[in-house]
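Lay summary

Proteins are chains of building blocks that fold into shapes. Our project writes down both the chain and a compact code for its shape. Here are two examples, one after the other.
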Amino acid sequence: MRIDKDSIFEVSVTLIFAIILITILLSHIVYPWFSWTASAILLLLAVANLLFHRVPERKSPGNDKTVTSVADGQIVEISRKFEKEWIKEDCIKVSTYMDFFDVHANFWPVDGTVEYNKYYKGRKRFAFSPKASEDNEHYCTGIVLPDGQKVFFKQLAGSFARRIVCYSEPGLQTKAGEQCGIIKFGSRVDMYLPLDAEIKVKNGDVVRACESVIALLR
């Protein structure tokens, strides 16, 4: 396990701040029950922040035909939707909701080439809300596979998310299972796949980024 490269500074600041406060509490507060309780809470928060920004080492079965999950979480929607931004066709939409305790690092779902990326500012609706897909802050990425098929996904901020990081840029070669970014504090990923894709998950399934197969492409 490692720490997300874009989060090292804030994780370090949080740890240092927690250590300073704990030192002050244990050195200057005369009520042991208070100083030890407060110190334990600060330590737990610092560790939780560290774990939140973790990037686990995983092996992916993904390739240019096998689509793996971008994120850890629970499948909350599988439906037929018209993708109006980039693919501009009916697709199968698969949505994964991440709660606070899930790994929030995101990973490329397929091998291909990034052809489209765009960032949108937006609202902070709860990530499981159907309107979140359009209204919330989000980052879009479109990947073209070697055979010309397209895979599109959105990283969506939730009600508590404050930053989306994505490494996509046009021309970038993606490798399934490598990190593509991170969404910080509660979020969701919407993936749009070809209509003839063989979906391997169902609503309510708990999936793991890199490891869980979402679909097989024809």
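And here is the second example, written the same way.
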Amino acid sequence: MKKKKLSLFVLIIAMVLVLYFTLKDDFSGVIAEFKKINIPIFLLAILVLLISLLFKSLSLKKFVCEYNSNYTVKKSYQLTLIGQFLNGITPFQTGGQPFQVYLLKKDGVRISDSTNAMIKDFLSYQIALIIVGILAILLSLKINVLTDNVYLNGLIFLGFIINFIVLVFLLLFSLTKKTGYKLAHMIVHFFLKFRLIRKIFKDENRIDEGLKHFYETGLELKKSKTIIFKCIFYNIIHLLLLYLIPFIVFKSLNYNGVSIIESLISISFVMLISNFIPIPGATGGIEYSFMQFFGVFASGAILSSAMLLWRFITYALAMIIGFITLILKKGVKKNENRTIY
């Protein structure tokens, strides 16, 4: 409970600081830009977000249906929306998956099966992220989208490498049981030397259990290659639609200084960097990255307004929708459990 309160406190402080530094130099200019928003185009950006999350939910549904053929798109979409809320309030987006496993249990999927489904879904998402990241880097080298900031450019490649290493480790753990066990225990013992992990036996048991799920998932992945390729495709569509939102936001502000390709590449770099920022929602770092990369194409009140609108849609609004979905789903569950005389 203390960790949750601390995460929420850090998130609020970070958001307040972001708003302060974004608005302090040209508050009236940002407000003036907000007044000129093209409402239909802005609503289109929200619609694109919802469609993007639909594709993400289609991936999850495919994997869950391997264990429960009656699992519907509606339930999967609800689960994805709830995940947006829980991931948004926890560091490194770690809060969604455990609760999603719990909700899947409520929908009749065994914990072991739902865990395997979540692992498969995360693997397909990670592969899609790497594919889109590679495409963005290759395109940026051709049309020179990279900034003059050596530090930021270094973070792009660092973010890509970290995500790639995560993918390699996930595949290693899931496809090679013996190697995965050895490597995991080596990592635990390495950190133990620096007293970063305590209660070693308890941690080792957790690792054994987790690796068992990974290995079981790996065995199933070998048998369902068609499904994994479909889900990678769904996640690529999800990411491309999500990355399209900044371009639409600039259009809603009647600004034409950034092309769709430049926008897609820039936001891809922003997301690669944000994945390893430990603050909930990557707040602070992700806004700074947006301002730096899109600062090549826009400036002043336009840039600040676009960033705030983009963050509202993809983060704040997504969390609000997820929270409402969670409340409604809980209400439905309570009603289902009532006995009517």
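What can we say about the second shape? The radius of gyration is 21 Å.
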